[in-house]
Design goal:
Number of domains: 3
Number of helices: 10
Radius of gyration: 24 Å
Order of helices and strands: HHHEEHEHEEEHEHEHEHEH
Low-confidence stretches: none
Mean pLDDT: 86
CATH architecture of the largest domain: 3-Layer(aba) Sandwich
Structural class: alpha/beta
Largest sheet: 6 strands, mixed
């Protein structure tokens, strides 16, 4: 029986626009112009005889027909992608790994030379997971979750997260901090993507630390650089600052406390690649070799 389907390009354009919520985002993902996405969607609407979007061009919303079609298309295209990847990979091509940008810069990249030296035939392609976009297409996603709620057997635990206040040595000399309560009188640095970090640390340390106003930065990487430059005191995960502590760029006057979070490596559903096994084994070894922080005395 002959299949009667709309053009595949039109279906792909609509699926991307519906999933991402903007024509411009769909255009960027598919490497075409926003106008091309709009034309493909219009072609699909003419083919189906029903509108799929309504509202303004800047903020379109799905119609009832669009809401019905979108999840079915997304599932079908994902199944096609998974199947094609499974039968065509054959142990070749890069492994796509997504993780937070600061984790990538401060923890993963400094260690990748070891992986490249051991496995020069396996290429690692890094992607950021800060925007939570495109992770479903990655072979591996390194992320953080609450250790008490970890029940996903496909998520490989890496290490527990430890939080502690850090600051530049010259600033520490000027402030002469004696006890954790002294922190409340000084500029505390904050990170937009982790606004509860100070609360988490104070709760873990059993300290009633008032919420203090201070500069806020977009990513941990910016916050840590501000701390290194003496702009204030940051509260940071051990694995992001241990190299700076060892080099003397930062000090941690009150040690570190377990936050209750842990880092995990999550494989894409259905992935059974020997190369991915190699990468996961290496990540696990790197996590085990990581030194542990000192807790508050």
């Amino acid at each position: 029986m002959k299949r009667r389907l709309p053009p595949l390009n039109a279906l792909r354009a609509f699926e991307a626009a519906a999933r991402l919520g903007r024509m411009t985002a769909a255009a960027e993902e598919l490497s075409v112009s926003p106008g091309a996405i709009s034309r493909q969607v219009q072609q699909l609407e003419l083919n189906l005889g029903v509108p799929l979007f309504e509202g303004s061009k800047s903020r379109p919303t799905l119609t009832a027909a669009g809401r019905t079609l979108s999840p079915v298309l997304s599932s079908a295209l994902q199944n096609i992608e998974d199947c094609v990847r499974e039968i065509s990979d054959g142990g070749h091509g890069p492994l796509d790994v997504a993780c937070f940008s600061t984790f990538t810069v401060k923890w993963l990249i400094p260690r990748l030379f070891d992986f490249n030296a051991r496995h020069p035939d396996i290429e690692i392609r890094l992607r950021t997971s800060d925007a939570d976009t495109g992770q479903e297409a990655c072979d591996l996603v390194i992320t953080v979750d609450e250790t008490s709620h970890r029940d996903d057997v496909s998520a490989m635990p890496l290490f527990a997260e430890w939080l502690g206040p850090v600051l530049a040595p010259p600033l520490a000399q000027r402030l002469a901090l004696k006890q954790p309560a002294d922190l409340a009188a000084h500029a505390l640095l904050h990170t937009r993507t982790r606004r509860n970090a100070w609360d988490m640390w104070s709760a873990a340390a059993g300290i009633a630390l008032p919420a203090a106003a201070g500069p806020e930065f977009e990513h941990y990487y910016f916050t840590l650089e501000a701390a290194v430059r003496g702009l204030g005191i940051a509260v940071a995960p051990w694995h992001l600052v241990m190299d700076d502590l060892e080099s003397g760029r930062l000090i941690a006057p009150f040690g570190f406390e377990a936050s209750g979070y842990g880092y995990v490596a999550q494989r894409r559903a259905g992935q059974r690649q020997p190369r991915l096994d190699v990468l996961c084994d290496w990540l696990s070894a790197q996590a085990r070799a990581m030194p542990q922080p000192a807790s508050r005395q």
